[in-house]
Design brief:
alpha+beta; tt1808, chain A; 6-stranded mixed beta sheet; 5-stranded mixed beta sheet; 4 helices; 13 strands; 23% helix; endonuclease activity; Nuclease_put_TT1808; hydrolase; nuclease
Length: 186
């Protein structure tokens, strides 16, 4: 009996073509694809709340807000991710159909299955995107918000948002009230 032959890893171009045909979303890292699970109601609600608040606050600026189904390319890591919410102020991104390249802000809503990865390897890949200035992690179970800001090229500063305090995003000059982020969440 012959042994199964290893499948050569996808190239990024192969992934982008393949992903367009898939009914489910997959993230791509170094030639491997990873299926994404569905999100909980609370996860979707928080993502929608953050998207809506940012979209309204950024109206009339060169920045635009995108969510869940828009891929983000982390070129230095040969990766494509689906952040829960992202903001880009890059004119070329606003013309893109498949993925964004120059985010200013990325927001991830944590789930038990992805929390360690979002905080670890995924955040490491995001940090290598030169345009990224702010990264936010929202934990719906603990109602915690962690706000990371780039203060120098390779230095990130953590600001833990106290319960009931607003999320202040100085890079975008936007403030989102705590109650707005967790609106309609049990």
């Amino acid at each position: 009996m012959a042994l199964p032959q290893p499948t050569p890893p996808f190239t990024a171009e192969d992934y982008l073509l393949w992903e367009e045909q898939q009914p489910e979303k997959h993230e791509y890292v170094h030639g491997e694809t990873f299926a994404m699970d569905g999100a909980s109601r609370r996860h979707v609600t928080i993502s929608g709340n953050v998207f809506a608040a940012l979209d309204a606050a950024l109206e009339g600026t060169p920045c635009r807000t995108y969510m869940a189904d828009m891929k983000l390319r982390a070129e230095a890591d040969e990766a494509y991710f689906y952040p829960d919410v992202l903001v880009t102020c890059d004119a070329e991104d606003h013309k893109a159909e498949q993925f964004m390249r120059a985010p200013t802000l990325v927001v991830e809503v944590l789930s038990p299955a992805t929390a360690a990865y979002d905080r670890g390897d995924k955040f490491a890949a995001y940090r290598r995107i030169p345009s990224l200035k702010e990264f936010v992690l929202i934990d719906p179970d603990r109602r915690r918000i962690e706000h990371y800001r780039r203060t120098q090229e390779t230095v990130w500063e953590l600001h833990e948002i106290e319960p009931e305090a607003p999320l202040v995003l100085p890079g975008l000059e936007v403030t989102i009230p705590w109650d707005r982020i967790f609106r309609n969440v049990d």
